[in-house]
Amino acid sequence: MDFALDEQQQMVLDMVRSFAAERVRPGAAERDRTAEFPHDLCQEMAGLGLLGMFVPEEYGGAGVDLLSYLLAVEELAHADAAVAVGMSVTNSVCCWPILTFGSEDVKRRFLPPLASGEVLGGFMLTEPHAGSDASALSTRYVDAGDAWVLDGAKAWITNGGIGRYFVCLATRDRALGPKGISAFVLDADQPGVVFAKPEDKMGLRSSKTCMVSLDGARVPKSDLLGAEGQGFRIALATLDHSRLGIAAQAVGIARAALEESLR
Q1: Coil, strand or helix at 252
Q2: Is 69 exposed, middle or buried (0-12, 13-18, 19+ CB in 10 A)?
């Protein structure tokens, strides 16, 4: 078996390794101390095509393969895991499910601003009382005619307070279990979405993590992902995909820890 990288993968690796060493690593400790989100680095990453890596060029993305993405995540995590988290979340749990399950209209409206760095994205699944058992979520949605209306609370949402578009899971009726859950693209720039103060974490401090309240938050009918009732399946597929990025982050962090211990 040949484990050599192809030309594109090697080019991505070299580019991100250089960017991480020159731009990301020098300020990592200070960002962690101050918990300051690196808006400038996000714009630079967008310019390098790192915020829409899976997104095809027709929607404004880089259109690279999975391994290229994982190499980029590993190199960013090697320099600053918090920066890697923000980049990975926008790619893997926002862009990917929109690209995979969204209608053509949804893809054309949401993917270009995400890939360009005009906005950041995230994923609203976990709740204060529904973590590992995602089917037990209690955020509800109702059909309001021209829109879906969501009410509930989400917990530990990465890119909370700085992102705009979030893939959000809610249930029509908890009694239906997984079959009652649907997935939506939620525009957080509305009065019905309220982000709490960012959590004061032990690490990854420049990556923002927030509780979120949804109080009559509206989603246009067109912004449903897949069909109604398919949300649980979409959530599990998205989590399966995103875990690859988590593994790449772990490898990058472990490499940095090993190098530091040897030094």
Answers
A1: helix
A2: buried
For the segment 34-42, the average pLDDT, to the nearest whole number, is: 96
Residue type, 123: F
Determine how β-strand 209-220 pairs with β-strand 181-187: unpaired
Distances (CA, A) of 263 to 21, 55, 209, 256: 17, 39, 32, 10
Structure tokens at 159: 């890119």
N-to-C CA span, the chain: 33
Look at residue 132 in the predicted model and tell me its pLDDT: 67
pLDDT digits (tens, 9 = 90+) for 110-135: 999 999 999 999 999 999 887 667 78
Give the integer Cα–Cα distance in Å for 28 and 262: 20
**Distance separating alpha carbons of residues 89 and 210, to the nearest angstrom:** 14
Q: How far, in Å, CA of 73 to CA of 151, rounded? A: 34
SS (H, E, C) 122-171: EEECCECCECCCHHHCCCEEEECCCEEEEEEEEEEEECCCCCCEEEEEEE
pTM value?
0.96
Query: Could you give the C-alpha distances from 35 to 7, 29, 89, 90, 142, in angstroms and in order?
Result: 37, 10, 18, 19, 37
